[in-house]
Structures are given as C-alpha cells and as structure tokens.
Amino acid sequence: MKGIHLSLLIGPAVPRPVPTGVIEALTEVQVQSSATGRNGFQLSLTLGKGSKIEQLLLQGYFEPIVTRVIVVLIVNGTPEVLMDGVITQEDVAPANQAGQSTLNITGLDLSALFNLIDLTGVSFPPGIPTFAIVAMLLSKYATIGVIPKVIPSAIEFVRNPLEGEPRQVGTDFEYITSLARKVGYVFYVEPGPAPGLNTAYWGPEIRVGLPQPALNVGMDASTNVESLSFAYDGLAKELPVAFVQPKRTRIPIPVPVPDVSAVKLPLAAVPAIPRRVRQLSDTAKHDFGEAMLLALAGAVRSADAVTGSGQLDVLRYGRLLKPRRLVGVRGAGLPFDGFWYVPNVSTTIKRGSVTQSFSLARDGLISNTPRVFP
C-alpha cells in the first residue's frame, strides 16, 4: 500500500529479514495487544508441496519457542514495532486444490519466555517491597532485550520481617501477574521502541500523557473510523467489601476501600455509581494493610463501567492506534465525547489493507476535559 510497508524478521536469538519466498506466501498478519494480558500474533502463509515454505518448515525455520518473530509496520515513514515474540504453535490446514493449503504460525510476546519454568518456593529477602521483587525477576531477561519499567505502588505494604520471607508461587510470569493484581496494577511486555527491544511494564494504567489523534465519527469528510459504538453497563462497577479477623479477638473488622484515583486516574466528570456490593473472600487471614490493598485492587478492576468498540482503516486514520494510551473521541455526543483509555487493539494486515479493531474504557459519562486534541 502507498505509505504503508511491512517488515518481517524471523530467526533464533537475533531475527533477520525473511526470505522473499516467505513474503510471497504471506497472506495475513494479525496482532492482538492488550493492557491486561499477553500480546499475541498469527501469520498465515500459503503452503504447497515442494514450496519454499515447506522446505523452511522441514528445516525448523518456524521452530516453536526458540524462533523469534518481529513485526514492524512503517506508516507514512514512521516505523512502529507491532510485535516482538516467539512462535508457540504451528497449524496446517490442507486443501483439496494444489497450492491452497495454509500454514498458520501462532505466537506470544516475550512474556511467554517468563512462563517456562515453575520456580515455586524461591525466597526473597525479608522485608523487601513488592516492586523490588518484580524488578529483580524482570532483570533476568535483559539479555533478550527486555527493559524493566517498574512503578512502586501508591500504597506500599511491607510484611514484617519476623513473619518470614516472601516466596514465589508459580512461574515468573504467573507470580509477577499475581503481584500486579494484588495492588490494582497491570503487567505487560510492550515491543519497541526499536526492533529487538521491549519494555516490561509493571504499574498503573497509563492515563496521562500526550493523547493520540482523535477518533472522529459522524463528521462527514473528517470521519476517520469505520464504526464506533458505546455501552454503559450499570452492573459493571462494584463496591468491594473486605474484613480482617485479628488472631487475638477473632472479631471481624471492616476494611475501608481507598480512593481508586490513586491508581487509576479518572477520565469522566460523572463517574458511574457502584450498584453491586461484593464481599472479598480469603481476606480474614490477611492483616489490615494487605486487606486494604486487595480491596483497592478489586475496586480498580471494576471501575470502568462505560466501554466503546470500533474499527478503523489505518491509511485513513493516518497512523497506528496504540493500546494502553489515551485517545480522544469527537462527534459521538456529550456523554461519550472526550478522552478514553485504549485497553485492546487488534491489527489485521492484508495485501492492500491494514485495519484495526479496538476497545475503549472510561469510568463514567461526560469527559472531564472540555476539548480533545489534537
């Protein structure tokens, strides 16, 4: 496409540009990016008997886990690293017609390498804060181009050293993810800023900074999205309730829920009101500080009651819409105009088209910012 070019690199350790035969056989590239989980990708290639793809397949060119894939999309001269991950699965769909069989290469971002070895029982120094544990675990992956970005929790709780040392449960990925959920944080590995480099982010959702170009709907020639819809779920927001039970008295004591704005900045002038009350389980065995963090994490996970979804053409939008950032909306009406958080984006690349499906999230109606820009 004019103004849009695809660069694909595959190989063990240090990926290299793919052979011409791979590009010729490539029919579709899909990349899924999420703020609350792993990123994934899928390459679809035509597979024929005796073809270049079959030869590479037999030679182990697409070997799972050891083979790294980097997808770079250049839009109007600006390169964007869409994916940097490893192959996890190969699927072949034979066809009755010659040369119409399909090879699907599926993979995950580099966090898949964090999930290979169960290290349950590994201990850490007594009294060490949670963010320091995360930084220690992520530093092991610097050799593969992973740069840790760890943000200390707004409400940090350090266990009494006399009560024992913290111990890991599960793989690095499972343990780091569980630590993020306990404090209302997110954990993901984001590709870039350059091919071969990645940022392992552990912290609150990024709801500040320079927003992306606005999504315009119902504005005639200025419209730059193909579809956009919104929903307000009145049952989505919950009020978590936690109780602790001191060992001496055994009397349940309610735990106050801290303000979620300490972790998730509000985007709406009229936030949704929680209509449901949910009692958190297994908080009685924790002390007061841990129970407060669990209550805060529960409130953060259900804060976004207003959501949106849509689809756009990258060429018309003028750039790639990135997940885990802010974006403005124009033309949808006062309740839904303004700034939104982008939690998920799915990019589909075919010959002649690059489209994106996306979701939006906000804590209520009417933006707390009167105008969107740019």
How would you sum up this structure, described in words?
Strand 18 (325-330) and strand 19 (338-350) form a beta hairpin. The protein is mainly beta. It starts with a strand and ends in a 7-residue tail after the last strand. The protein is globular. Among the domains are: 4-113, Trypsin-like serine proteases (Thrombin, subunit H), CATH 2.40.10; 117-203, Phage tail protein beta-alpha-beta fold; 238-301, no CATH class. The protein has helices at residues 20-25, 52-58, 130-138, 172-182, 288-301, 314-317; strands spanning 4-12, 16-17, 26-34, 40-47, 67-75, 78-93, 101-109, 146-150, 186-191, 198-203, 212-216, 227-232, 238-244, 253-255, 268-271, 276-279, 306-313, 325-330, 338-350, 353-362, 364-367.
Question: Keyphrases for this structure?
Answer:
21 strands; 374 residues; mainly beta; 14% helix
Give the topology.
Elements: E1 4-12, E2 16-17, H1 20-25, E3 26-34, E4 40-47, H2 52-58, E5 67-75, E6 78-93, E7 101-109, H3 130-138, E8 146-150, H4 172-182, E9 186-191, E10 198-203, E11 212-216, E12 227-232, E13 238-244, E14 253-255, E15 268-271, E16 276-279, H5 288-301, E17 306-313, H6 314-317, E18 325-330, E19 338-350, E20 353-362, E21 364-367
Parallel strand pairs: 8-10, 11-18, 13-16
Antiparallel strand pairs: 1-2, 1-5, 3-4, 3-19, 4-7, 5-6, 6-7, 9-10, 12-17, 13-14, 15-21, 17-20, 18-19, 19-20
Order of helices and strands: EEHEEHEEEHEHEEEEEEEEHEHEEEE
Low-confidence stretches: none
Question: What CATH architecture of one domain would you give?
Answer: Beta Barrel
Q: Which structural class do the helices and strands define?
A: mainly beta
Strand content: 35-45%
Q: What is the overall pLDDT average? A: 89
Approximate helicity band: 10-25%
**Largest sheet, if any?**
13 strands, mixed
Looking at CATH, which topology of one domain would you report? Thrombin, subunit H
In the CATH hierarchy, what is the superfamily of one domain?
Trypsin-like serine proteases
Radius of gyration from the alpha-carbon trace, in angstroms: 23 Å
Per DSSP, the total helix count is 6
CATH class of one domain: Mainly Beta
Anisotropy-based shape:
globular
N→C terminal distance: 26 Å
How many β-strand stretches? 21
